[in-house]
Amino acid sequence: MTASELWRHSDPEGTQMWKFLQHVNSKYGLSLADYPDLYKWSVDNVADFWGDVWHFAGIKASKPFDQVLAPDAPMFPRPDFFAGARLNFAENLLFPANADVNEDAVAVITATEDDNALTETTWAELRDQVRRCSNALHAAGVKENSVVAGFVANHVQALVALLSAATLGAIWTGISPDNGVSAVLDRLVQIRPQVLFSDNATLYNGKEWSGKAKTLEIVEALKQHGLETVVIIKGLPNFETGLDEFRNLGVRAEEHDSFLSSSADQPLVFTQLPPSHPLYVLYSSGTTGLPKAIVHTAAGTLLQHKKELYLHCSLSPASRMLYFTTTSWMMHHWSVSALSCGASLVLYSGSPFKPNGYLSLPILLSKLKVTHFGTSAAYLTTLEANSVIPIASEHNLDLSRLEAIYSTASPLPPSTFSFVYQAFPSRVNLASITGGTDIISLFGAPCPLLPVKVGEIQCAGLGMAIAVMDSASSSAEPELVTTEGEEGDLVCLKPFPCQPLTFFGPAGQDKYRSAYFERFGENIWHHGDFVKIPDSKTGGLVMLGRSDGVLKPAGVRFGSAEIYNVLTRHFGGEVEDAVCVGRRRERDRDETVCLFVVMKEGKGFDEGVRRRIGEVVRRELSARHVPGVIEEAGGGVPKTGNGKKIEVAVKQILSGMQVRTNASVANPEALEWFKGWARREEERERLPN
Q1: The AMP-binding enzyme C-terminal domain covers which part of the protein (predicted)?
Q2: What are the residues whose beta carbons fall under 8 Å from the beta carbon of 141, sequence distance 6 or more?
């Protein structure tokens, strides 16, 4: 059955994607006719493709590369792309190549729930703030490979700190202030930041929240792991910065503006670095241990982002992007790279439903003339569930500048695809996109040369040789699915520049290999998504959820290990074992985190235990981590013969999928119990209220 078509670009031959196709035809004497032709060429000619993107999209480098990629380069260990080149990531965002930027034009608008708190920053002002901040960081001892962290909301000061770290060749990592102390320390203790930027307070859901107590606790712990300097951003003037209290912990503490003013009046100098120099650390949670700290490279991140934003998304200096994201999410890093196309940014921090209810963000889109709006699938389904139609609201919104809406973090339901074209202008390119923290970018992308079809991601991104692997096949003999449209595991078969450099810390390469190259072998990237490709020619993807133990309620990604760690720390005397998975049935709009516990002998499970677990998870991690279902596992936790929890099978059972696992089950009766529980839940939900 063919998915119904919702949109086509009004002028596809006027897009940068079409111009790139013609460039390839001209350079190589080809006759590529459409996107499927261009995509096939890009994955068949990996080195030629990425070299052409480097020049066509515009990468500023002080030294050109000697070669794009060595012949027959493997996927693991990670190959060295663009060997010999020297460049700086921040320079490419602040002084973008192939983009005519007026330094007096607005580069960044910072917005919150407070309508009166909009602040504009021009390109000249942004460059000067990065000059001052990078010089202050340099004076504080930050150099190449130092770690600079931000416990910060999405605002221009966070962006300046990020770009300043990149200017010096330091590594940036960002964590949103809605995370609890345990969640922050589980991440930052591993990477030992030298400098921490933190907000004094945040505005969320109509309330102002002090961040001082949490930050003091974090700084006290990090002081034992190399933290030297704390910079407090005074985002809300009614809250104290607590500088003396931080200084009493034995660190240097400065208010943000004073820190910038303390720098020497030196010019802005961009350290020129190899393409594989580390740029960002993001965190991917799994089913065991601490969150894994993924190191992403400067050139890989820059080139992949610019390919996606310039070619797939058609960004230009006339564009303005607002992506509703926190600083923890990879979409923050992706969206700030819009600067490399000369586009301006709207950095928003707060609830999407304040101060004007469901119309809060649409009003902002209208007011700020946003052209590209990014959000989560959960946000769009909420608008649909509440019949919110921005183009028909009493506010007379002007969404005439809006060109694209991007939805990610979880699959967008088919009905929501259709709803968006009722609620927003019909000319908008609605793009459900997918990728992730692991690649800090996209596997499934927008495309101005293809239609939008109900329920489908438009295409595989150029240069990303994705395929669908039979989930039941083994690592010794991996097999692709044999039928078009068959469900399976998303894999990538050829190297790509935004592969992570490594995982931070001891045994980083072993963790890297285990995460992506253990399941199907060292030349097949296993991404952990469950997908199908209905039409291999067009490359449209349908996302079916995660195929591993990673949880994504409302698009917020974390691992079951974070829940297990809380149970161990706070319920070790009561809970013997547990299994935590995500449930998303065909009818569900979002994933529900389901936690099943096995109580220790003599300890009972009741409503009090359920309530206490929820409260502690909320306090130690965040409200988004709290399971929607907390029950006792009457049949125990299903495990393999070597004692590993079989989370994927439990997830498949609860989600109404066919159970496909290559693992042998030591206690099959546990799986039978979950099948019975799922049936009983279905029956209970069918009963009238």
Answers
A1: 566-644
A2: 194, 228
**How long a stretch of residues is the chain?**
689
- Amino acid found at 494: K
The structure tokens listed for 327 are: 């600083």
How is residue 240 written in tokens? 């104290």
Paired tokens of 344: 């301006």
38: Cα separation from own chain's centroid: 27
pLDDT tens-digit readout, 416-469: 999 999 999 999 999 999 998 999 999 999 999 999 999 899 999 999 999 999
All residues at 6 or more sequence positions from 107 whose CB lies less than 8 Å from its CB, including other chains: 101, 121, 122, 123, 125, 126, 339, 344, 345
The Cβ of residue 76 has, within 10 Å, a number of other Cβ atoms equal to 18
Contact 228/249 with Cβ under 8 angstroms? no
- Whole-number CA gyration radius for the chain: 24
- CA-CA distance, 308 to 406, in Å (whole number)? 12
Phi, psi of 505, deg, nearest 5: 95, -175
Tokens of residue 600, six digits: 């220790």
Q: What does each C-alpha distance from 53 to 179, 205, 313 come to in angstroms?
A: 37, 42, 14
- Displacement of CA 637 from its chain's centroid (Å): 30
CA distance 101 to 164: 20
355 preceded by cis ω (within 30°)? yes
Predicted TM-score (pTM) of the model is 0.86
**Tokens matching residue 614:** 């929820």
* pLDDT reading at 565 higher than 70: yes
Q: Do residues 491 and 482 touch, judged by C-beta distance below 8 A?
A: no
Amino acid letter, 51 = G
DSSP state of 296: E
**Residue 339 has which token pair?**
């600067």
SS3 416: helix
In terms of phi and psi (left: phi > 0; alpha: psi -120 to 50; beta: otherwise), the region of 242 is left
Residue 592 to residue 146: CA distance in whole angstroms: 38
Collapse the DSSP code of 300 into the 3-class scheme (helix H, G, I; strand E, B; otherwise coil) and give the result: helix
In this prediction, residue 1 carries a pLDDT of 44
For 4, phi then psi, to 5°, come to -75, 145
- Residues 273 and 85: their CA atoms lie apart, in Å, by 8
> What does the pLDDT look like over 514-553, one tens digit per residue?
999 999 998 999 998 878 888 777 678 887 766 666 677 8
For the chain, count helices (H), then strands (E).
Answer: 20, 33
DSSP state of 118: -
Residue located via tokens 């547990």? 578
Which CA distances in Å does 8 have to 373, 417, 449? 18, 14, 8
Q: In this structure, what token pair is assigned to residue 248?
A: 């009493």
pLDDT bracket for residue 643 (50, 70, 90):
low
What would the 3-class secondary structure string for 342-387 be?
CCEEEEEECCCCCCCHHHHHHHHHHHCCCCEEEEEHHHHHHHHHCC
Among candidate residues 318, 289, 321, 296, the one with its CA nearest the CA of residue 308: 321
Name the percent of the chain in helix, strand, coil, to the closest 5. Answer: 35, 25, 40
406 Cβ partners below 8 Å, 6+ apart?
313, 323, 372, 373, 374, 375, 431, 433, 446
Q: Is 446 helix (H, G, I), strand (E, B) or coil?
A: coil
> How far from each other are the two terminal CA atoms of the chain, in whole angstroms?
36
Give the β-pairing of 229-233 and 195-199: parallel
Q: Which residue has the tokens 């920053």?
A: 121
